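lol forgot to send this yesterday, sorry. struct tokens for the thing we talked abt
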């Protein structure tokens, strides 16, 4: 059986179209299936619409979370509750086209345990596309593991991969595409053209995108911590050279830029150096603070989602 896991947050304008396109595409999968809709604390009529779908169609199950926990925890709740042998993750805004799923499932049947989507085109603004592209390339450069370029959460995962994510990777701060890459197994990318949002407002605001990027960077790279060492060496070596230069200048009294040692008190350069080093130290303290805050969240071991209700057609 195939499980299609879709987090939903205020998607009333897309839900009916999403359901129709999924059910129309289902015959091409040649498998029994379930659609697992995760209500991530929606405030519009999304839950009501999903409840009606679940009560009419046995293929639909709705996982209602107790509040809005966020996109990544909602996905985690969905894959935990999914029953399928293959689990598909996709968004509810129809930027991930249901009509393309058969291509992913064909690769899964060939023996690939993770089939992830690679976006060849994004129908979004120039600056947003540049931000996404830059993030993936920075992530690839500094990550401790290999995370495929331009790949999102849209994917098919075999049951044994999902079991690893659910049971063996209990971290509180979730970055699914990174966890998926870390798990390993036989993986392959499938290219597709990412569509525009079908209707409604974008739910991933700039602030949420930045937070997701930070979760990826701090969760799968130790480079920010090593950055303090690199900066320290970069600053220390030229500082030592400049210090020796001015020490010789003071001891032997030769002129620098036409001035004697008595005429070069160095207050301006001293002030600039102090402010620069202060900025570097504050930046590094901020980076260390990010890691400490994540350690603090992890050691509390609070659940990263709470299920309020499971809605499905009564048998």
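and heres what i got for the seq, position by position
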């Amino acid at each position: 059986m195939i499980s299609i896991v879709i987090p939903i947050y205020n998607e009333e304008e897309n839900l009916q179209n999403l359901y129709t396109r999924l059910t129309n595409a289902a015959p091409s999968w040649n498998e029994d299936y379930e659609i697992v809709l995760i209500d991530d604390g929606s405030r519009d009529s999304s839950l009501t619409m999903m409840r009606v779908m679940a009560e009419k169609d046995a293929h639909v199950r709705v996982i209602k979370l107790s509040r809005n926990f966020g996109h990544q925890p909602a996905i985690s709740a969905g894959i935990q509750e999914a029953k399928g042998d293959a689990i598909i993750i996709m968004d509810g805004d129809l930027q991930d086209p249901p009509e393309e799923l058969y291509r992913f499932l064909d690769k899964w049947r060939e023996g690939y345990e993770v089939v992830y989507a690679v976006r060849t085109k994004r129908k979004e603004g120039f600056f947003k596309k540049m931000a996404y592209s830059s993030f993936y390339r920075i992530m690839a450069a500094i990550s401790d593991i290999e995370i495929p370029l331009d790949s999102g959460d849209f994917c098919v995962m075999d049951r044994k991969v999902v079991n690893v994510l659910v049971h063996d990777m209990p971290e509180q701060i979730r970055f699914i595409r990174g966890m998926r890459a870390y798990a390993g197994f036989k993986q392959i990318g499938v290219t597709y053209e990412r569509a525009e949002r079908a209707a409604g407002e974008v739910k991933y605001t700039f602030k949420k995108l930045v937070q997701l990027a930070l979760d990826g960077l701090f969760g799968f790279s130790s480079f920010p911590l090593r950055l303090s060492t690199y900066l320290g060496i970069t600053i220390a070596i030229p500082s030592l050279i400049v210090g020796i230069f001015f020490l010789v200048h003071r001891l032997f009294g030769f002129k620098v830029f036409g001035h004697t040692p008595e005429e070069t008190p160095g207050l301006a350069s001293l002030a600039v150096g102090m402010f620069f080093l202060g900025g570097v130290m504050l930046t590094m303290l901020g980076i260390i603070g990010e890691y400490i805050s994540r350690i603090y969240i992890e050691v509390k071991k609070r659940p990263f989602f709470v299920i309020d209700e499971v809605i499905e057609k009564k048998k």
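The two ends are 18 Å apart (CA to CA). anyway ping me if u want another try
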